[in-house]
Structures are given as C-alpha cells and as structure tokens.
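Supplementary Methods S3. Complex input for the phosphoric acid mono(formamide)ester-bound model.
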Amino acid sequence: MKHLLYLKNLNQETITEILDTAEHFLNHDNQPIGSEKILQDKTLANVFFEPSTRTRSSFQIAARKLGADVINIDEEHSSRAKGETLFDTLKSLEAMGVNYFVIRNKHSGIFDEILENIDHNSRLINAGESNISHPTQGLLDLLTIRRHKKDFKNIKTVILGDLSHSRVARSLTEGLSIMGTGEIVIVSPIDYKPDMKLFNGAEYTDNIESALSDADVVVTLRVQKERMDDETQFLDQSKYFKDYGLTSDRLKLCKKDVIVMHPGPMNRGVEIENTVADGEHSVITEQVTNGIATRMAILSIIERGKG
Ligand code: CP
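Predicted complex, serialized as structure tokens:
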C-alpha cells in the first residue's frame, strides 16, 4: 500500500493486515500505545478544507506517536484564502520537507489529480472526500466491529440516516463487502435514499423497524445539511427524530448484544437519543480511540512499504 485513497481498492488480506497492526498498537486497556519511531525525520501535513475534530486530531496523535513532525493547514488560515492553487500549496509544503499528505476536501475527484502532481516520494491519504470516500473511518469502523463481534461473517449491520450524503456509509459498506460480511441493511427516509449502485452488497429500506430487527451492529449517521443544495432537502428535525431517530425503544428490536456506532459529530436528539449515545451498547468513544491505532497502522504499513 503506497497511498490510501479508496477502501474499495483494498483486498481482504490488506484490510486484515491493517486491522491486525492496529490491534498491536492498542494496550490491554484498549488505549493506543507508543511504538518504534518508524516516522522519525518524516513530516506529515494535515491539509483540511473541511472542518474536522476526530480525523485531524487522531492523525496528528498517530503520526507523533510514530515519531513524525506534524503541521496542520486549513483553508481559512492558509494562502489558499489568497487564491493559491492546491497544487502550489502542496509544492510549497513538499519544499519544506513534507512527506505525508493527509487531505480532506469537500469536492470530489481531486485525489487522482493530486497524485499526478506530488513528488513520487510523497504519500497521500484521503481523510474525507465529499460524499464519496472516507477510507480511514471505514477501517476504524471495521476494527471496532471486529473487536466486538470477532469476525464479519453472519452479522447484520444496519446503517441508518442521511445515506445520500454519507462518505462514511459508502466506505464502511465497501469494507464490509470486501470482508465477506453477512447482511448490510441501509435505512433512511426516502428523501435520503442513495444511488444503490454505489452500495454494492447492501439492501435498502425506509422501514426502520424491520431494518433494526435482530441487528448486531447499528451505525447512525448525521443529517449533513452542509451538503444539501437547498433548504427544502433538510427535513424537520423533530419529525426526523420521531421517524428515524435511534431511541432506546427502537434499540430493543436489535439483538441483546448489539453495538451502537456513530462516526461523529453527533446531533443528539436528531439522529440519536442521549440515552442510546451514552448507553451500555454505545461504542462511539471506542471508535474515536480506535481511530488513532488504525491511523498508526496505516502510516506504518505505508512507511514499511517504502524502500
Ligand atoms: N468521523 C469524522 O470524520 O469526524 P471529524 O469530521 O470530526 O473528523
């Protein structure tokens, strides 16, 4: 693995190697631990043209644990705001010794072009691309599921929410399909039904009760107002919660040992009830912690592959 752009480009063996390596970076209390400084003398740039709390911070922590220097660039506070092209920005960062680019972009289709423009020794990781791809989130979600369910076979995963705008749902569906999972059900109001050609291996329903029946894993998603072209696409929040919110009553439809996931940021009282977000089935904070170990694994596997 030289770069990480799309989860669908990985095979089962590579995903298993990433998850196994991530496990190695978690201690007995499931906290990420330090390691040999495999990224000593390397510099990683987090280049984020969309807001982020988890992805950016966890790449920063992961890279530092591996010995790298880290810099953070965002649109508002960089010379991009003065009209500099993305490629001139990246060239300038390379001139300062940046080797790893972790990039989040609100527009789709830029990553192949970036690859053509960066130095052949630089490495590129997709940290979120429009509604297309969020491979590191998909991988940390797979790690979280595997740690609770042991493997992916014979489990029913339900992905619930604004699917038409969700890169998280797309990457997780790709990952689960590659890992040969049991059943993937995606559920949303019909207004947020995605193009099912992009969700190979999943079945769609707008019936939340039937979807949740006997689920092993439920992934809830935020309604992404910022990706909607006009206000009419934004459904009334209290009606959305009533019809599609994950409540403790609805959770009773799932298996007794169901886990509840959410990539964050959460809108409590819209897609998820407080008692569920903070309840005994929630593994939402574990996902965040697993994000550090997963990103450490990705960086160290890419670095080991250099040579
Ligand atoms: N899950 C996720 O991508 O969160 P951030 O937007 O905070 O990075």
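The chain has two domains: 7-134+288-304, 135-283. The chain has a mean pLDDT of 94.
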